UniProtKB/TrEMBL annotation:
Protein name per the record: Xyloglucan endotransglucosylase/hydrolase
Alphabetical UniProt keywords: Apoplast, Cell wall, Cell wall biogenesis/degradation, Disulfide bond, Glycosidase, Hydrolase, Secreted, Signal, Transferase
Signal peptide location: 1-20
Native organism taxonomy: Eukaryota, Viridiplantae, Streptophyta, Embryophyta, Tracheophyta
UniProt entry tagged with the keyword Aminoacyl-tRNA synthetase: no
InterPro entries in UniProt: Beta-glucanase-like (IPR000757), Beta-glucanase/XTH (IPR044791), ConA-like_dom_sf (IPR013320), XET_C (IPR010713), XTH (IPR016455)
Any one GO BP annotation for this protein: cell wall organization
Location in the cell: Secreted, Cell wall; Secreted, Extracellular space, Apoplast
Amino acid sequence: METLSRFLIFMSLFSGLVSGFALQNLPIQSFEEGYTQLFGDKNLFVHKDGKSVRLTLDERTGSGFVSNDLYLHGFFSASIKLPSDYSAGVVVAFYMSNGDMYEKNHDEIDFEFLGNIRGKEWRIQTNIYGNGSTHLGREERSNLWFDPTEDFHQYSILWSESHIIFFVDNIPIREVKRTESMGGDFPSKPMSLYTTIWDGSKWATNGGKYGVNYKYAPYIARFSNLVLHGCAVDPIEQFPRCDEGAAEDIRAAQEITPSQRSKMGVYRRKHMTYSYCYDRTRYKIALPECVVNPAEAQRLRVYDPVTFGGVPRRHRSGKRRSKRSRVDETESI
């Protein structure tokens, strides 16, 4: 297992170099310069290095933080180590949203990690919303090829004018291409980056069959290598500031190499357990951007129906507003 993990890391870095976009070269911001606590009081702890953060969920509250700036496109990443042991009902979210600014027509790009009962794997759920299209969930769920509670792994979101790509250790696991048929459903307004841990007992594990058991609390999620690399937007003028380096990196990151695309295909065949494109209970006709693969549709029929929830909406504090206003390894996956 250790040899395989080292090989995966090597191949992930190699893929980044081939595409002209190397994650390890991106600037890592300290918590103070890049983020503000969102909620949770003492359940958020910043380590002495100023760049590592611990979020806790206990009987009192969850916790979370949010970027100081809004962004219109960029590459956003964090190394995350998830809570171990019994974690049913626990949700760790790494996502972009503008729900506090556009309550009726918000955009969102989600990485959600769904806990499980002892002996069962954590699962990843990805989703996007554009222009308040919450009635059209575009969820996908999958498992991982490693135990995300044993060590840190890098989870990343690439958002450009034409693409959204979700990465795990620099391996793309999902690509959303903007199509004319999607219209305003593709996220297009400035968003903040959020990171939270919270109680999703009503839906996160087996449709709410297993909830959070606070006998096992506190639940601790750890974060490091926090990357905010994009086009920051002035909150007053709503005009993005995007230097040429960031713009070039965004363009490079959206170009998936043949090697990365091969790994993505293997990952989806081996680990994806749900896609909205094949859910005929929710959608009698697949949404227009879906490219239906009959073999994939047949394989996904064996999985039980899923229940969905949403990231809790929390308004930013006045303090935060004032701060912002200051100007051939793939087959092993």
